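Fold these two proteins, one after the other.
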Amino acid sequence: MEKLKKISARWWFFALLLLAQTVLMPFASRNFAPQDIGRIIPATLAGAPQMQLGDWNILFQSVSLLLLVLLLVFRNRVRTLFNAYVAVSYLAFAFIQNVAFTEQYGFSVVTVNLVMFLFVAYVWIREALRPQGRYDFGNFRWKYAWMIVLALFAYWCPFTLRGEADLNPLHFFTHNTATAFCLTTPLFLTVLTLNLPQVNVVTYRITAIIGFIIGCYNMGSFFNPGTVWLGFVHLPLLLISLYCAVLSYRHPAFRP
């Protein structure tokens, strides 16, 4: 992925990402109007399959936690398995979070999210097929400890749907965080950061940049009293993604 590494360091790469935010408009099979984009997107996100998993959550959460435990115990010996899991996760996020059938808009798609999530899935697929990184956790630095705390907070998501604090530890198994881009990406980025500099910088960088963009979108939750809690659970995505994106350019091992 050397070519993508060079491309991602060009100014026009960021210009294309910004342009995509306006060009890739959402799609709706009926009742679509440009002035309704602000309603189509939340309707699609709310009606997406990821919000309807119900009793399946415990299965996906358990698999996710099991993979993390296996990685911590067996480390690089399960590298391919972990990379494949993350790649499949991002493929799933793209479709189960950004595609929906809604009563008002019919078949609808949050196009820009779909494309960005698939971009992240692509770099992880490449890493799964031709791994460049290692998971030895042998270069731990205490300065990264804050990332662990924030990543676990996002994954735990200690809130009810009404926004009330709920510190039940069983939420690690019952909430639908393992199937959510925003709440799982901080964990994946933290795992990579704890293995610096032995990571694929392209995978690290693209995941962080897209994570930061999605995190910025979710900061709008703070402007609605009913969704302030969503803003708090998305802060780890914003902060960790920004930090990792900067590291992917400034870390001594990744400089030209």
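Now the second one:
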Amino acid sequence: MVKKADGPEERFEEYLERLGAVVGHTDRREPLRGYLIGLCLPGERKSVEPMAARVDPRHVRARHQSLHHFVANAPWDDEAVLRVARDYVLEQMERHGAVAGWIVDDTGIPKKGRHSVGVVRQYCGVLGKQDNCQVAVTVTMANEAVSVPAAYRLDLPEVWANDRRRRKEAAVPAPVTFKTKWQIALDQIARLRGEGLPQAPVVADAGFGVVTAFRDALTEQGIPYVVGITGQTSVWRPGTEPLRPLAYRGRGRPPKLIRRSRRRRPLSIGALAEALPASAWQTITWRQGSRGAMRSRFACLRVRPAHHDELRDHARQVEWLIIEWPRGEVAPTKSWLSTLPADMPREQLIRLAKLRWRIERDYEELKQEVGLDHFEGRGWRGFHHHGVLCIAAYAFLAAERARLSPPEPLSFLRAARLPSGFKPRGSPDSPRTTPPPLDRHLSSGAHQSRITTSALHMVRKPAARQSDFMTQ
């Protein structure tokens, strides 16, 4: 039985034991340890050779060979490692609240050459333009305080999936076929649900939300969502819907398809927003950011999506339409559709729609701090092994950060109200006072002890030993 860890070093060792139990052969535990330490240590580059130099500077060549074999060739199960990592974070996430959403997203990894698995010229969000890159699809468990990717898979482009030579060179597994990003996401969601993870609404940006088949598949599985859409998406005005099928006249097949007419037609979300009265808009604050309260102007309506519904025999169900139109903007900036309950408070709807900031920060830290985009190998296995190990390293850092955050029982603490007219010493308006005489018989240490004992004894913690890895 693993002894309960007291400090970060002990917790890191316990975490390594959990991960080591699922990588297979015991010989893989030492390179696992070295790889994770290399990812957590500060450094500009987190590819294999620089990490080998930081982890074992006296035996760089041998350590490089060991780490490279472990990440690129060793046949351990990356999904099993990812399960351990995500479960480790979920233990700490519960201290800050339930899982609020499953965030579906993708991230681009720029590449100079064309031989790394999955590299094609495509849109890369990091660069903001078309360029050579790989794209990974992820599903992240998140609430307002903590988040961690729980699924990670390369989006294999169709030109790669149908090229036998490329597949062989990159060792792409035979069962892997071409799927769109939203289809990959649906597979990931189905697998995570089968593993019994805490269920929550799916949150996604417009790259996934504009795909009607993606939304329909979630609805068929009973999974609520809040997904981004574009201003060109068509909906029916609140309170309206398509016409019923024509009456049967006794000849041929009975009409089954719902209809539109010149007077009763759907309209784009952009046109609907333009037509809304001023009373439909409300300023709502969804969270406190580093620069203060984050708020904007929203309209929340109950509408029916209209995408090609003239080819259906019944109208789609009524959903939430959320439109954001900040003051001073000439047009709405963002829109979402959501199948959350009709009685859901608007503040909660918008807070969930805006939850994607968590994964945006995760991607930034995974790349800048842990080296998600630093892998220099070309194969399928190495791509996924490196990505999962980066997530595992990040998971430990995220759990430590969540552990250091104030626990729920301390939320009652509030700053005392200052007396009327109080001016802090040193401010321009404060009266000058004569400093008290220096007590030469009182040591500075005793003075400090007197201060901290009277006010901080309940929350004071012993100083942790310096660690070889960073927490942030």
